């Protein structure tokens, strides 16, 4: 059994209230970060609850961690963008490796 289920991670989308509970970041702050284009929610239409995917949740956790360490929001956001690119590259490689393993079986 694989350590990570990539299909599940792609489907993992939760509402702003749940994200606030998971991360400890208040919903008001999440909305502000979204206004500043630091994070992005998935919205189906006007007035629909904001929903966030796994990568945005990870990004929120990393930004809050850096804020707690004394970084400004802009500096934390820039640093997290670099980290997220690295994480994304690793996930792509792992997905490719998992796909190759399935094909070899």
From TrEMBL:
Name of one Pfam family that matches: MerR_1
Keywords, comma-separated and alphabetical: DNA-binding, Repressor, Transcription, Transcription regulation
All copies of domain HTH merR-type, residue ranges: 16-82
Matching SUPFAM superfamilies: Putative DNA-binding domain (SSF46955)
PROSITE patterns per UniProt: HTH_MERR_2 (PS50937)
MF terms in GO: DNA binding; DNA-binding transcription factor activity
Cited InterPro entries: DNA-bd_dom_put_sf, MerR-type_HTH_dom, MerR_fam
PANTHER family (UniProt xref): MERR-FAMILY TRANSCRIPTIONAL REGULATOR (PTHR30204:SF69), REDOX-CYCLING DRUG-SENSING TRANSCRIPTIONAL ACTIVATOR SOXR (PTHR30204)
Descriptive protein name: Transcriptional regulator
Organism, scientific name: Bacillus gobiensis
Taxonomic classification: Bacteria, Bacillati, Bacillota, Bacilli, Bacillales
